[in-house]
Amino acid sequence: MAEQGYPDQPISLVVPFAAGGPTDTIARIIAPPMAKALGQPIKIENISGGGGTTGITEASLAKPDGYTIMIGHMGTHGAAPALFRTLKYDPARTFDPIGLAAGTPVVIVARKDFPASDLKSFVEALQKKGSTYSQAHAGVGSVSHSTGMLFDSIVNVKPTFVVYRGTGPAMNDLISGQVDFLTDQIVNVVPHLQAGTIRAYAIATPERSPALPGVPTTREAGLPSFEVSAWNAVFAPKNLPKDVHARLVDALDKALDDPTVRERLLKLGGRIPAGSERGPVALQKLVESEVARWTPALSAAVEEQ
User: Fold this and answer.
1) Among candidates 143, 146, 144, 151, which has minimal Cα distance to 123?
2) Where does the secretion signal sit in this chain (predicted)?
3) Does domain 105-203 match CATH 3.40.190.10?
């Protein structure tokens, strides 16, 4: 049974990446209105490593009382089983899903002075020089790693991977020209593209994003086989008391209906989940489908590396 008056103390929201990346950004956007709905502060706790699996694993072991929750994504709860043989959690069974927070299209970006004018010439450059170019990612199993591997496999290139503890630090090095490119979630790239500090070659969605109207889709740019969107969602350790679970689900729902949250997410290119996509049932189905989708795709890509 839940404690009387839940919550009666601050709640920890574990972000499994370094501060400044897309998952961290989304967490910091939804946390304040969730806290308002719950009547207690929500503290962001960044636990990076293992492509997000370190923080998720640690959070999964917390007491299921509603005072530790976490934000995971397509990498930690979709791609990870195909990439980690010793993964210490089952994305579909270890957690109580709270709800989807945002959809985040993936964008192919490079340092601003990369010598290619469009996606076709970008791919040709990678194919010619191979490991000469460096590709950043936030650790094995992260969105940037999973989608990057898929991209490399499709265009048949083998760049040199440079691993970070989050795409926040990776983006800093891309801006300074220390690495050449990465595939990243749109919420992390929009401010830098608007500032002109990096360049984008394509967005991996069927339609252009209102946040980046000048960036062509991969289909328009000649690579229709690379279409992939990421997502971020809130989870809790398994076996939450039913009333605590209901409070958290309601708080996230209220946060997503908050005008400020919607404005900030949309401005960054995020997609607000529709009513039918919200809540624990829809999220559970999404996780199961993502594991089924990414396991064969990434297993094949791993074999090619």
Assistant:
1) 151
2) none
3) yes
Distance CA 274, CA 267 (A): 17
Instruction: Tell me the residue type at 69.
Output: I
Q: Which amino acid is at 48?
A: S
Q: What is the pTM of this model?
A: 0.88
Alpha carbons 248 and 65: distance in angstroms, whole number: 11
Beta bridge pairs of residue 235: 70, 97
What amino acid occupies position 277? Answer: E
Contacts of 296 (CB under 8 A, 6+ apart): 82
The Cα 109–Cα 198 span in angstroms is: 7
Distance CA 52, CA 168 (A): 13
Given a cut of 70, the residues of the chain with pLDDT beneath it are 1-4, 300-305
Residue 304: its pLDDT value, please? Answer: 53
Q: From 194, 237, 230, select the one nearest 214 (Cα to Cα).
A: 194
Q: DSSP assignment, residue 111?
A: E
Residue 1 has what pLDDT? 40
Asked if the domains at 11-104+230-304 and 105-203 fall in one CATH topology, the answer is yes
Element housing 198 (H / E): strand 198-203
Q: What 3-state class would DSSP assign to 196? A: coil
Report angle CA 163, 169, 174 to the nearest 5 degrees.
85
At 64-99, the pLDDT tens digits run 999 999 999 999 999 999 888 889 999 999 999 999
Q: At what angle do helices 167-175 and 143-155 cross, to 10 degrees?
A: 60
Please report which helix (H) or strand (E) contains residue 72, including its range.
strand 68-73
pLDDT tens column, 163-179: 998 888 999 999 999 99
CATH number for the 11-104+230-304 domain, one of 3.40.190.150, 2.40.50.100, 3.40.50.10260, 3.40.190.10?
3.40.190.150
From the CB of residue 179, how many other CB atoms can be counted at a distance below 10 Å?
A: 24
